[in-house]
Amino acid sequence: MSSADTASVKTLKNWIGGEWVSSTSTDIQDVPNPSNGGIVSRVAMSTRDETAAAIANAAEAFKTWSKVSVIKRAKILFKLEQLLERDKDELGDIITAENGKPHNEAVAEVGRGIENVMHAASIPNLLMGDSLPTVATDVEVTNYRYPIGVTGAICPFNFPMMVPFWMFPMAIACGNTMVLKPSEKTPNLMNKVIDLTVEAGLPAGVLNIVQGGPDVVNELLENPTVKSISFVGSEGVGRYVYEHGTANFKRVQALTGAKNHTIVLNDADVADTVTKTLSGAFGSSGERCMAGSVILVEDGVADEFIAKFTEAAKGIDMGDTTEENYYLGPVIRKQNQERTFKYIEEGVKAGAELVLDGREGVPEDGYFVRPTIFERVTQDMSIWTDEIFAPVVDIVRVKDLPEAVAFANAHHLANGSCLFTDSAASIRYFRENIDAGMLGVNLGVPAPVAYFSFSGWKDSFFGDLHANGKDSVEFYTHRKVVTAQYKQGRFNK
Ligand code: NAD
């Protein structure tokens, strides 16, 4: 991109108290299109003071928003849902340009976000409390739910729309206000969403966007007005956010890294399994917390499965996703490409068999990694211990299902796991014995729909209440339990 072009690139503003405000920060970063390096926008690393101003605005807005009737809140969400449907394609274009995932996956992601808005719009049902009329003579107990106040949200780059939508629709539906920080690598999508929230009638200060990095995060973690933190991102940062947030007496949900194991048994439908595991491993360039990055395949089907899987991976088309809807786009940044190449080198050095080398034939422009397949991977190799977050898959031959489950359970990350089989007994064994929160049976990416919680286990999640489903209502509310005596004596005369 020429300097004349870059001069016209806009620096994104923050949305605070219902106004677009420029950051005063001098730390301004480029947001490149990962397919070609062209600059999509610039983003300021906003200051702690700017974050504190957003928190103060959210606190002010809470005073009125928390009293708005639940029906009015739901109506705004219904309107937002319609606007998101209307602009689905445009939102998909924004995601593709800043994240690199192909347009069809970007639009599917928008669909996932919309699903969350629909879930949140059913808030009148979800917020209902419960009561018992006769716990003692003339005594009744009623449980009421209330919003918790100003909530904070910290998002990753890999789902610029879906992840923020795990957070703000339910938070505001419950009557809270929010300060949300998108990833500095994909900051554009949420600024467009703000325009739609305004069109839907969301009052000023209810949802605030502060762009930036660690300074914004640290203000959210330390500012006493913020009552909760919803975080999605890598394991290391998630640990920090959980420790620091809870040390500051906030409720924290931190959804973190993953290494998801897929098990293929001898009785699996091989053609169907290849299609689905291919998408699980290489879809969105492997930059999914539900990516099927390890495949454990039973001996009897291993040769056939590996041959067909490799053949299919070789046939994957890759390119600039802003030009065409290629199956495989780039990874997010040059550093991620280089980091992936380093892992491939380490895998080879450690003795794994490199069946397909994703370093070969990658274009100069953009940050591409072709599908990469390793065989004969062992548990001491960094390609197994670490989340690579790229289109790299480890294949391991196993003698049976118990060996596969034991292999998967040895990992400290446990977001999801899939099983391909035709056997009910195997499915039951898998469900009862695997240590992972989200399971797929004959599916490659078992990301639960919004009405169920996103339930990673072990070090893939720090906290108690997960995102989405009924957990999200619990997370964004607290309760009053009222025990009351209403003496009936005067009516009994
Ligand atoms: P990341 O941890 O680098 O960034 C996440 C957020 O934390 C960003 O907003 C970033 O600005 C902030 N951050 C980064 N470093 C920080 C620091 N030192 N101090 C304070 N804040 C900091 O994650 P990412 O690369 O954007 O996203 C990919 C990761 O997210 C992967 O590990 C993936 O598995 C995970 N993820 C998990 C889920 C899940 O449901 N478990 C879903 C999506 C993504």
UniProtKB/TrEMBL annotation:
Q: What class of enzyme is it?
A: oxidoreductase
User: What GO terms are given for molecular function?
Assistant: methylmalonate-semialdehyde dehydrogenase (acylating, NAD) activity
Tell me which EC number(s) this protein carries. Answer: 1.2.1.27
Q: Which InterPro entries does this one have?
A: Ald_DH/histidinol_DH (IPR016161), Ald_DH_C (IPR016163), Ald_DH_CS_CYS (IPR016160), Ald_DH_N (IPR016162), Aldehyde_DH_dom (IPR015590), MeMal-semiAld_DH (IPR010061)
Its GO biological process annotations read: L-valine catabolic process; thymine catabolic process
Per the record's keyword annotation, is Oxidoreductase included, yes or no?
yes
Q: What domain of life does the native source organism fall in?
A: Bacteria
User: What CDD domains does the record tag this protein with?
Assistant: ALDH_F6_MMSDH
Q: Which UniProt keywords apply?
A: NAD, Oxidoreductase
Residue ranges occupied by any Aldehyde dehydrogenase domain in the UniProt entry? 20-482
Q: Name one Pfam family in it.
A: Aldedh
Instruction: Identify this protein by name.
Output: methylmalonate-semialdehyde dehydrogenase (CoA acylating)
Can you name the source organism?
Acidipropionibacterium virtanenii
